[in-house]
């Protein structure tokens, strides 16, 4: 088997590493890079959760602060993101702890406020999230319009 360097072609490298594992040739494995890739899987799952939460919260902000622009599209995005988050948490239960991580939620909130600001042109959003995580994720809950 030829060996591909991790830095040269990660896909070919990954396929070779998988073949080595299946063949029981553990002494030939690139353990340091395998460990990095395993850690990256966890980071990728966290990024997906953060991205979905950001999109959900940004739409909840738009719902609250632009009641005159509410529409089916926003409702569908909110509903679909809630469902996707619930499914993601079911598939990766260890991510639930992120929802209780104050620093992580502050970052997600900041990203959501930024996104909502760009999309609405508004800059009067709260500095901290006024809603509980349970409210954000519960099916059917919507924030009350701000005047």
Observed structural traits:
6 helices, 65% helix, 147 residues, mainly alpha
Report on this structure.
With 147 residues, the chain is mainly α. The chain has a domain at 44-137. 65% of the residues lie in helices and 0% in strands. It is built from 6 helices and no strands. The protein has helices at residues 10-22, 31-65, 72-91, 96-99, 102-120, 133-137. It is elongated and about 65 Å long. The termini are far apart.
Ordered list of secondary-structure elements with their pairings:
Blueprint: H1 10-22, H2 31-65, H3 72-91, H4 96-99, H5 102-120, H6 133-137
Q: In a nutshell, what does this entry contain?
A:
By secondary structure, the chain is mostly helical. It has helices at residues 10-22, 31-65, 72-91, 96-99, 102-120, 133-137.
Order of helices and strands: HHHHHH
What is the makeup of the main sheet?
Answer: none
**Outline type:** elongated
Please tally the β strands and state the result: 0
Q: What share of residues is helical?
A: 55-70%
Distance between the termini: 67 Å
| Class by SSE composition | mainly alpha
Give the strand content: under 5%
Average pLDDT reading: 95
In the predicted model, the low-confidence regions spanning at least 5 consecutive residues are: none
Q: Measured on Cα atoms, how large is the radius of gyration?
A: 21 Å
Count of discrete alpha- or pi-helical segments spanning 4 or more residues = 6
